[in-house]
């Protein structure tokens, strides 16, 4: 495959995985948790690097997952000590992120990890790190990781589809049915962390939040059906990723920034034209929406 | 340590981060009671495109102009969050997350263009992302000081009105206070505090300056006035200490150190705080338990 094709494929995979997992972020009303996790994943990656002294996919994945779940745990713990939920989030992620930046600046400041890269992503470098897999052949490491993560996400979503649905829409009912709500919460936070780590190389810590939240929020304006929302959000993610790539190529700028910008365009279109919840629909038939 | 202080530029920078900490600590208390802690995070990220556009327009790094750009962009972000939340079924935190990430992404697009086209001046712009107080010059410091003092002054002179606005909106309305006007003023001081802090602390960590001192102060008092005072002190100390630590090494970012010092205050408050701190809570619980035990024992003896 050509250099450009790999980049577009990787971007599309980021859009797809983030779009699918983001649906539950919106439905569970924990969208800002994605912001918190995406920041603290940096600390996980830095610590993984300090421990193993190499930039390896597996170590980073584990570090990132641990950091993400740890964040969710800390926020929950502070909240149980009666700190306002969003304040707890704000304290935890800024502090852990700050520690991450300090560690980078003091002990690992070299070409492999730098803050700029972590914040903006560098999708153009991805095709330079190829690995060879059986059956598939040569594939960029980040792309392979994304494929793996996508498979894991889809597995968990399909395997526990009913449980996700109930815990997201009605946690009280879920608890009364004997579904382990707390466990599902941490499993979900784990999945968000995995997705974030895998997307990190491509889009960086902050733009991944756009990829996670915006396609799902846009899809939420089009449909009330969970299965359809998942498909729609995944497609919006892919469309934004590919559009973002071409915008970046057109005006020669940051690909990850353009991808985030493109999700904004998708949301804007949904916000205006959605048949049920769009601005125009509301203006045309205000009586029905009342 | 002393030689760092005597280095005149560091002294100025120290003064400005301390004042910034005081202003942010003050405004943070209001955000805390409005339950809008993460709003500051969204708005500070949303300021990035404004900074870069202002830079592209004037072609040089003039802090005041960049601050104005940042403020306009953050206000547009605030307006969009409000609009999306009221006009659709998207919840407020989703709207904040979207505005935060999309504005930031747009800012990075523009920053890449600015870095490519504008020549040697751009290195200072990158500092805006995660804060580089050491890069500030005398005029930057004065701009920051003046704006921070204005913010603190506005809170100070309208203290009674702010209190009513935050805690008893209905009553405030009853005595003829315009809630809409107060809301606008609140957003204005919030955005001002955020944008003047970006240069020193960076867009990503600016939220911590508003959230952490306020929450820490909450552990020590029930009075709003004392909470604001304490929060301002925590903020000021964190700002000063963080700046000093980052001045010890070359090229160390300031923002992260300020945040970590602030987090230290938070942990101490969380454990030892007079109001609902963990230790007090535990002691009260033990005392309660012992009282109950002795009560049941007396009952047994009597029975």
UniProtKB/TrEMBL annotation, chain A:
<feature type="transmembrane region" description="Helical">
    <location>
        <begin position="229"/>
        <end position="248"/>
    </location>
</feature>
<feature type="transmembrane region" description="Helical">
    <location>
        <begin position="57"/>
        <end position="75"/>
    </location>
</feature>
<feature type="transmembrane region" description="Helical">
    <location>
        <begin position="202"/>
        <end position="222"/>
    </location>
</feature>
<dbReference type="InterPro" id="IPR001626">
    <property type="entry name" value="ABC_TroCD"/>
</dbReference>
<feature type="transmembrane region" description="Helical">
    <location>
        <begin position="87"/>
        <end position="108"/>
    </location>
</feature>
<feature type="transmembrane region" description="Helical">
    <location>
        <begin position="173"/>
        <end position="196"/>
    </location>
</feature>
<dbReference type="GO" id="GO:0043190">
    <property type="term" value="C:ATP-binding cassette (ABC) transporter complex"/>
</dbReference>
<feature type="transmembrane region" description="Helical">
    <location>
        <begin position="34"/>
        <end position="51"/>
    </location>
</feature>
<keyword id="KW-0472">Membrane</keyword>
<protein>
    <submittedName>
        <fullName>Metal ABC transporter permease</fullName>
    </submittedName>
</protein>
<feature type="transmembrane region" description="Helical">
    <location>
        <begin position="128"/>
        <end position="161"/>
    </location>
</feature>
<dbReference type="GO" id="GO:0055085">
    <property type="term" value="P:transmembrane transport"/>
</dbReference>
<keyword id="KW-1133">Transmembrane helix</keyword>
<keyword id="KW-0813">Transport</keyword>
<keyword id="KW-0812">Transmembrane</keyword>
<comment type="similarity">
    <text>Belongs to the ABC-3 integral membrane protein family.</text>
</comment>
<dbReference type="Pfam" id="PF00950">
    <property type="entry name" value="ABC-3"/>
</dbReference>
<dbReference type="GO" id="GO:0010043">
    <property type="term" value="P:response to zinc ion"/>
</dbReference>
<keyword id="KW-1003">Cell membrane</keyword>
<feature type="transmembrane region" description="Helical">
    <location>
        <begin position="254"/>
        <end position="273"/>
    </location>
</feature>
<feature type="transmembrane region" description="Helical">
    <location>
        <begin position="6"/>
        <end position="27"/>
    </location>
</feature>
<dbReference type="InterPro" id="IPR037294">
    <property type="entry name" value="ABC_BtuC-like"/>
</dbReference>
UniProtKB/TrEMBL annotation, chain B:
<keyword id="KW-0813">Transport</keyword>
<keyword id="KW-1133">Transmembrane helix</keyword>
<dbReference type="Pfam" id="PF00950">
    <property type="entry name" value="ABC-3"/>
</dbReference>
<dbReference type="GO" id="GO:0010043">
    <property type="term" value="P:response to zinc ion"/>
</dbReference>
<feature type="transmembrane region" description="Helical">
    <location>
        <begin position="254"/>
        <end position="273"/>
    </location>
</feature>
<comment type="similarity">
    <text>Belongs to the ABC-3 integral membrane protein family.</text>
</comment>
<keyword id="KW-0472">Membrane</keyword>
<dbReference type="GO" id="GO:0043190">
    <property type="term" value="C:ATP-binding cassette (ABC) transporter complex"/>
</dbReference>
<dbReference type="InterPro" id="IPR001626">
    <property type="entry name" value="ABC_TroCD"/>
</dbReference>
<protein>
    <submittedName>
        <fullName>Metal ABC transporter permease</fullName>
    </submittedName>
</protein>
<keyword id="KW-0812">Transmembrane</keyword>
<feature type="transmembrane region" description="Helical">
    <location>
        <begin position="63"/>
        <end position="84"/>
    </location>
</feature>
<feature type="transmembrane region" description="Helical">
    <location>
        <begin position="185"/>
        <end position="212"/>
    </location>
</feature>
<keyword id="KW-1003">Cell membrane</keyword>
<feature type="transmembrane region" description="Helical">
    <location>
        <begin position="135"/>
        <end position="159"/>
    </location>
</feature>
<feature type="transmembrane region" description="Helical">
    <location>
        <begin position="96"/>
        <end position="114"/>
    </location>
</feature>
<dbReference type="InterPro" id="IPR037294">
    <property type="entry name" value="ABC_BtuC-like"/>
</dbReference>
<dbReference type="GO" id="GO:0055085">
    <property type="term" value="P:transmembrane transport"/>
</dbReference>
<feature type="transmembrane region" description="Helical">
    <location>
        <begin position="224"/>
        <end position="248"/>
    </location>
</feature>
<feature type="transmembrane region" description="Helical">
    <location>
        <begin position="12"/>
        <end position="33"/>
    </location>
</feature>
């Amino acid at each position: 495959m050509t250099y450009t094709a790999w980049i577009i494929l990787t971007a599309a995979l980021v859009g797809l995985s983030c779009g699918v997992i983001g649906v539950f972020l919106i439905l569970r009303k924990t969208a800002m948790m994605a912001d918190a996790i995406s920041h603290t994943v940096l600390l996980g990656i830095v610590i993984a690097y300090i421990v193993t002294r190499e930039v390896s996919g597996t170590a980073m994945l584990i570090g990132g997952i641990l950091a993400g779940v740890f964040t969710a745990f800390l926020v929950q713990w502070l909240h149980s000590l009666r700190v306002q939920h969003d304040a707890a989030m704000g304290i935890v992620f800024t502090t852990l992120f700050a520690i991450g930046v300090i560690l980078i600046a003091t002990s690992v400041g070299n070409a492999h990890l730098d803050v700029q890269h972590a914040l903006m992503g560098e999708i153009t470098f991805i095709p330079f790190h190829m690995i060879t897999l059986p059956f598939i052949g040569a594939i960029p490491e980040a792309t392979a990781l994304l494929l793996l993560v996508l498979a894991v996400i889809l597995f968990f979503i399909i395997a526990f589809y009913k449980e996700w649905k109930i815990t997201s829409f009605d946690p009280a009912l879920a608890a009364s049915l004997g579904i382990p709500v707390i466990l599902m919460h941490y499993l979900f936070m784990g999945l968000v962390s995995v997705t974030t780590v895998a997307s990190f190389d491509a889009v960086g810590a902050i733009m991944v939040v756009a990829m996670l939240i915006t396609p799902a929020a846009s899809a939420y304006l089009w449909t009330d059906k969970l299965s359809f929302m998942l498909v729609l959000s995944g497609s919006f993610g892919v469309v934004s990723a590919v559009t973002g790539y071409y915008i970046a190529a057109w005006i020669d700028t940051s690909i990850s920034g353009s991808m985030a910008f493109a999700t904004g365009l998708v949301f804007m279109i949904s916000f205006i034209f959605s048949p049920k919840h769009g601005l125009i629909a509301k203006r045309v038939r205000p009586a029905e929406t009342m | 340590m002393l030689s760092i202080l005597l280095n005149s530029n560091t002294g100025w920078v120290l003064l400005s981060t301390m004042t910034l900490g005081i202003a942010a600590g003050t405004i943070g208390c209001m955000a805390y009671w409005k339950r809008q802690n993460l709003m500051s995070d969204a708005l500070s990220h949303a300021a990035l495109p404004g900074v870069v556009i202002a830079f592209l327009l004037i072609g040089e790094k003039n802090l005041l102009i960049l601050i104005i750009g940042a403020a306009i962009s953050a206000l547009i972000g605030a307006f969009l969050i409000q609009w999306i939340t009221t006009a659709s079924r998207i919840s407020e935190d989703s709207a904040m997350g979207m505005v935060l990430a999309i504005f930031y992404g747009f800012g990075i697009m523009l920053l890449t263009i600015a870095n490519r086209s504008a020549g040697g001046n751009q290195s200072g712009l990158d500092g805006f992302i995660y804060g580089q107080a050491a890069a500030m010059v005398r005029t930057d410091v004065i701009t920051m000081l003046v704006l921070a003092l204005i913010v603190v002054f506005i809170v100070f002179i309208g203290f009674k009105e702010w209190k009513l606005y935050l805690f008893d909106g209905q009553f405030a309305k009853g005595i003829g206070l315009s809630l809409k006007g107060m809301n606008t003023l609140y957003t204005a001081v919030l955005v001002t505090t955020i944008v003047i802090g970006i240069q020193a602390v960076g867009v990503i960590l600016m939220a911590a300056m508003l959230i952490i001192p306020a929450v820490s102060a909450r552990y020590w008092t029930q009075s709003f006035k004392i909470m604001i005072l304490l929060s301002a002190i925590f903020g000021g100390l964190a700002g000063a200490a963080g700046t000093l630590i980052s001045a010890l090494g070359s090229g160390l970012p300031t923002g992260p150190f300020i945040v970590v010092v602030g987090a230290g205050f938070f942990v101490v408050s969380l454990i030892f705080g007079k109001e609902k701190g963990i230790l007090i809570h535990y002691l009260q619980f033990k005392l309660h338990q012992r009282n109950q035990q002795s009560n049941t024992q007396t009952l047994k003896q009597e029975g």
